[in-house]
Amino acid sequence: xxxxxxxxxxxxxxxxxxxxxxxxxxxxxxxxxxxxxxxxxxxxxxxxxxxxxxxxxxxxxxxxxxxxxxxxxxxxxxxxxxxxxxxxxxxxxxxxxxxxxxxxxxxxxxxxxx
Length: 114
Description:
Blueprint: H1 24-33, E1 39-42, H2 63-83, E2 90-93
Parallel strand pairs: 1-2
């Protein structure tokens, strides 16, 4: 999230020169400085179903897959709020988890409680 491959968090998606090239550190430090409260949507794939390697986990099919998903969510929250104090307190898991085009290969909604 600090130094992503090819200079952008979104290097696997879109055509070169058509997507924003930056990283999470730039986004979240700018939002914090401007006192903007972000809502972060956590997804395992983008609208183009990329990166392709994660499709094997979409949706999670067994306990190991769910553990992998949990690790991704935990690592994201930890990096943003514990390591960097970006104060991201509002989250959603997929924008519309029951709408396949939004990236989630499963049915129904995911409910998390902290």
